[in-house]
Design goal:
The chain is mostly beta strands. Helices cover 7% and strands 33% of the residues. It has a domain of 94 residues. InterPro entries: RNaseH_sf.
């Protein structure tokens, strides 16, 4: 059906960068240049941390069915009732661990920062507890002796001891 032109694909949304956004990106890259030797810093002690919200379901979803196939039932009170889960991901450069005497891949991990639990009823009229998502605030503090820059997508750079 794609070859005949009945179905078509669309591309993702491209970022609309202003000149100020482009200028800030260039300044960010130039901040990693060592002025003494005019070379890029090696960035060996940088940990990249990012968080991402995922919806369990999207508001609009396209399905393709054959004749006689039933469509799935998708109903919510509103868009605000779509459950979400936040994930935190961290990655660093591969390095050798002298204490364990092995090579470390640099993959730190990915964690879900919400927890599915049952709400306690607030009145005698509620017979069954309703499920809720409770946001967790984890405390991750890496061990070690070097400093590492932590850069997230929506946060300013910070320095944390590793």
């Amino acid at each position: 059906m794609l070859k005949k032109g009945r179905l078509h694909r669309s591309t993702r949304i491209k970022p609309a960068l202003t000149t100020e956004n482009k200028h800030m990106r260039v300044e960010h890259v130039l901040s990693y240049i060592d002025d003494a030797i005019h070379n890029f810093e090696p960035m060996e002690n940088v940990i990249h941390i990012d968080e991402k919200w995922f919806n369990q379901d999207t508001n609009t979803r396209t399905y393709m069915f054959l004749e006689g196939e039933p469509s799935p039932q998708r109903d919510r009170k509103s868009k605000n009732f779509i459950p979400k889960t936040m994930f935190l991901a961290a990655v660093a450069r591969p390095r050798y661990d002298f204490h364990r005497k092995c090579r470390w891949s640099g993959k730190i991990g990915i964690w879900a920062l919400t927890e599915d639990s049952d709400a306690t009823p607030f009145s005698f009229k509620k017979t069954m507890p309703s499920p809720i998502f409770r946001h967790l605030t984890p405390t991750f503090w890496p061990l070690g002796w070097k400093e590492a820059g932590q850069f997230g997508s929506s946060s300013s750079p910070r320095i944390l001891p590793i």
